[in-house]
């Protein structure tokens, strides 16, 4: 296999990225819900050349039993990359990076789930990266959030996620693989769209305080757009399953997903 060649520049003279995108432009995105019939809930996402499947099983009995939580369900997230998902064949055994990303995704999703409604149970989220071309952890959160909603798990909101990076001193949204490898760093984040509250914020590389604040605002704006794509994917899925004349029920379902944290806390207190 020929060695990778570093691109001469990630931005051209017009300020466009090497794939023609503007600095604030996302890659082409396709989201689908209900793609796996054997799962309780499932979703897929194509973000550029990145392709990911997410499947949810549960709530169900937890094994091994020593992991049981008496006051809430255990959210178990397993993120894996297929051996053929990257140019150099990946080892089939779970890597340290995969275990870390599994934990990151679980932490990003937990704030929106009413896990206390299912004590001693487990909700399993399996994420498989079929093809990786940058941004897999954020794309995985987008798909997993949809799969949880498809499974009927009570949620305060969907969770959109994106990474904002820096290339040649310029902030860019939704890094592809080459931008991720040869850029100056990135800031993955996930939000609750109703309140802009962060459920994920990481940083790799060096950013000034001003750059970090601007990157977060760019990420929030991109997440709002991703949230609309998530809602559209759910609407398409349930429109196929639901008889004509019940569009109002879909609207009610969407409203439930967008319940903000303040209203959710009131419900919990009651």
CATH architectural grouping? 2-Layer Sandwich
The CATH C-level class name: Alpha Beta
Fourth-tier CATH superfamily name: GHMP Kinase, N-terminal domain
Say how many strands there are.
10
Q: Find the CATH topology.
A: Ribosomal Protein S5, domain 2
Helix and strand composition category: alpha+beta
Number of domains: 1
Count of helical regions: 6
Q: What is the gyration radius calculated from CA atoms?
A: 19 Å
Termini separation comes to 62 Å
Helix content: 25-40%
Specify the overall morphology.
globular
Q: Which regions are unreliable across 5 or more consecutive residues at pLDDT < 50?
A: 266-270
Strand order of the largest sheet: 1-2-3-5-4
Mean pLDDT: 88
User: What pattern of helices and strands is seen along the backbone?
Assistant: EEEEHEHEEHEEEHHH
Biggest β-sheet: count, sense, barrel?
Answer: 5 strands, mixed
Would you kindly provide a written description of the structure presented here, covering whatever features stand out?
The protein has a single domain (29-269), classed as GHMP Kinase, N-terminal domain (Ribosomal Protein S5, domain 2, 2-Layer Sandwich). With 270 residues, the protein is α+β, with helices and mostly antiparallel strands. It is built from six helices and ten strands. Strand 2 (41-47) and strand 3 (50-61) form a beta hairpin. The relative contact order is 0.16. The strands form two sheets. It has a five-stranded mixed β-sheet. Strands 6, 7, 8, 9 and 10 form a five-stranded antiparallel β-sheet that branches. Helix content is 33%, strand content 26%. Helix 1 crosses helix 2 (136-150) and helix 2 runs parallel beside helix 4 (209-241).
């Amino acid at each position: 296999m020929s060695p990778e060649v570093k691109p001469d520049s990630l931005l051209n003279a017009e300020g466009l990225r090497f794939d023609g995108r503007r600095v604030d432009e996302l890659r082409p995105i396709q989201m689908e819900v209900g793609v796996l019939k054997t799962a309780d809930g499932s979703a897929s996402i194509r973000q550029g050349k990145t392709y990911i499947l997410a499947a949810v099983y549960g709530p169900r009995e937890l094994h091994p039993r020593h992991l049981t939580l008496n006051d809430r369900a255990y959210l178990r997230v397993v993120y894996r990359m297929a051996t053929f998902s990257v140019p150099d064949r990946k080892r089939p055994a779970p890597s340290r990076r995969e275990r870390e990303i599994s934990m990151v995704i679980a932490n990003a999703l937990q704030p929106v789930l009413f896990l206390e409604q299912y004590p001693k149970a487990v909700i399993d989220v399996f994420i498989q990266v079929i093809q990786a071309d940058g941004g897999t952890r954020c794309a995985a959160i987008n798909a997993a959030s949809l799969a949880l909603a498809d499974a009927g798990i009570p949620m305060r909101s969907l969770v959109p996620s994106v990474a904002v990076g820096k290339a040649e001193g310029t902030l860019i949204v939704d890094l592809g693989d080459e931008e991720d490898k040869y850029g100056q760093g990135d800031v993955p984040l996930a939000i609750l769209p109703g309140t802009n509250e962060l459920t994920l914020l990481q940083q790799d590389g060096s950013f000034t305080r001003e750059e970090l604040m601007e990157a977060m605002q760019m990420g929030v704006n991109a997440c709002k757009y991703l949230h609309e794509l998530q809602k559209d994917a759910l609407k398409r899925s349930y429109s196929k399953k639901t008889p004509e004349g019940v569009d109002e029920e879909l609207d009610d379902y969407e409203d439930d997903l967008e319940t903000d944290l303040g209203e959710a806390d009131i419900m919990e207190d009651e």
